[in-house]
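Handoff note, outgoing to incoming analyst
You'll be picking up this chain. Sequence as last confirmed:
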Amino acid sequence: MPGGKFCVYVIELDKSVANVKEFRERNPDMNPNLPCFYVGQTRKHPAVRDKEHRIYKYDNPSDRILNGYWVKRREDLYAKYNPIPNLEEAIKREEWLANKLKSEGHGVWVGLGIPK
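Most recent structure output, in case you need it:
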């Protein structure tokens, strides 16, 4: 990543992700009319990380959410927050961005499991 080692990214999820029990439990106040999102952080370019999520089928809750409900990467929601100089700041920004989207009424899943 030019100028930084990490970045945050956002992937829009199909609204049917709201049918997944874990997703609903983490988003009890989501507005069903708004898009749902996955928020992550990585040291790779977001396009590369996005592709990895769709190619590699890991057995963890985040990849199950992404593999079943991926719609598109939403650069418009994250580009201005990148690059990020270190992992500590990337984790903080990931949490901040997830909470920002949740506060707007979106359903959000976070790679680190934040927020719960």
